Amino acid sequence: MKIALITGGSRGIGRAACIKLAEMGFYILINYKNNEDAAKDVLESVKKTGSNGELIAFDVSNPDEVENALDNWKTNNNSKHISVLINNAGIRKDNLMIWLNKNEWNDVININLNSFYNITKHLLQDMMINRFGRIINVVSLSGIKGLPGQVNYSAAKAGVIGATKALAQEVGKKNVTVNAVAPGYIKTDMTKDLDEKELKRIIPANRFGSPEEVAHLIGFLASEESSYITGEVISINGGLYT
Ligand code: NAP
């Protein structure tokens, strides 16, 4: 059984990635933090594809919670291993640097960047022993270009981009690939406070992207066919920044 863990799988891009990977035949571990109902709804959609999965609740920024949840799963699923990890859970707390408070900085760094360490560290050994793994980190245009009002978020995502490139070189020999996808503006809860009508003027594709479009790219990177792509950051932004 091929097993994929998607962090932040209850909503938005993570939700679409759960369904895409289920369509590809993966058993899906749907991580979430608060929204159990939304996560259950994703599980229903996963089952409709003919595949199956389960919920796994933990806060990606809390190393003890991550360890407990993944250790428990492993104890109950001794012979199985997670071969695909989508580090997707993320938040933004925008403010100009001059007003950016410690919590806004720390929360965004902990949830978007430290989560990469917490979860990847835990699953990497199994992938290396089994000589197959796909790690896909959902970063952002903000981490490539830097966006005003997002010094915290840009720093976190740029950190994950650096980690992606470094880790790819450490584990390439073991047939474990590590890539990042960098979305521009995608229609999810995270962007519902933004004015699409106004912003689409600066996007060559003249619209926000859909979570399903991002999930399609994630699905390709999770597949065996992507085996010679590693250490890459692939933008998916309607031409907004190239
Ligand atoms: P979203 O709709 O706000 O969904 C966020 C997901 O992350 C939810 O499933 C949420 O779980 C989960 N989550 C948040 N904090 C968590 C935590 N501490 N522990 C575990 N799960 C947590 O966001 P999205 O737009 O799909 O974004 C997904 C990823 O894409 C993020 O990394 C984001 O930075 C990145 N991204 C998004 C855009 C965009 O335009 N939307 C652009 C560039 C990059 P609950 O449901 O339990 O709260």
What layout of secondary structure does this protein have?
Blueprint: E1 3-6, H1 12-23, E2 27-32, H2 36-48, E3 53-57, H3 63-76, E4 84-87, H4 102-129, E5 133-138, H5 141-145, H6 151-171, E6 176-183, H7 196-199, H8 211-222, E7 233-236
Parallel strand pairs: 1-2, 1-4, 2-3, 4-5, 5-6, 6-7
The site of NADP nicotinamide-adenine-dinucleotide phosphate has 30 residues, from helix 1 and strand 2.
Notable traits:
seven-stranded parallel sheet; 15% strand; alpha/beta; 8 helices; single chain; 45% helix; Rossmann fold; 242 residues; globular; binds NADP nicotinamide-adenine-dinucleotide phosphate
Summarize the main sheet.
7 strands, parallel
Structural class: alpha/beta
Give a count of the beta strands, DSSP E runs of length 2 or more: 7
CATH topology: Rossmann fold
Query: In DSSP terms, counting alpha (H) and pi (I) runs of 4 or more, how many helices?
Result: 8
- The N- to C-terminal Cα distance equals 38 Å
**Which small compounds were modeled alongside the protein?**
NADP nicotinamide-adenine-dinucleotide phosphate
CATH class: Alpha Beta
Looking at the overall shape, the CATH architecture is 3-Layer(aba) Sandwich
Residue share in β-strands: 15-25%
Strand order of the largest sheet: 3-2-1-4-5-6-7
What average pLDDT do the residues reach? 98
Number of discrete domains: 1
Can you offer a commentary on this structure?
45% of the residues lie in helices and 15% in strands. The protein has 242 residues and is α/β, with parallel strands linked by helices. The protein is globular, with a radius of gyration of 17 Å. Helix 3 (63-76) runs parallel beside helix 4 (102-129). It has a single domain, classed as 3-Layer(aba) Sandwich (Rossmann fold). The chain has helices spanning 12-23, 36-48, 63-76, 102-129, 141-145, 151-171, 196-199, 211-222; strands at 3-6, 27-32, 53-57, 84-87, 133-138, 176-183, 233-236. It has a 7-stranded parallel β-sheet with strand order 3-2-1-4-5-6-7, with helices on both faces. It starts with a strand and ends in a 6-residue tail after the last strand. The model has no long low-confidence stretch (mean pLDDT 98). NADP nicotinamide-adenine-dinucleotide phosphate is lined by residues 7-8, 10-14, 31-35, 38, 59-61, 88-91, 111, 138, 140, 183, 185-186, 188-191.
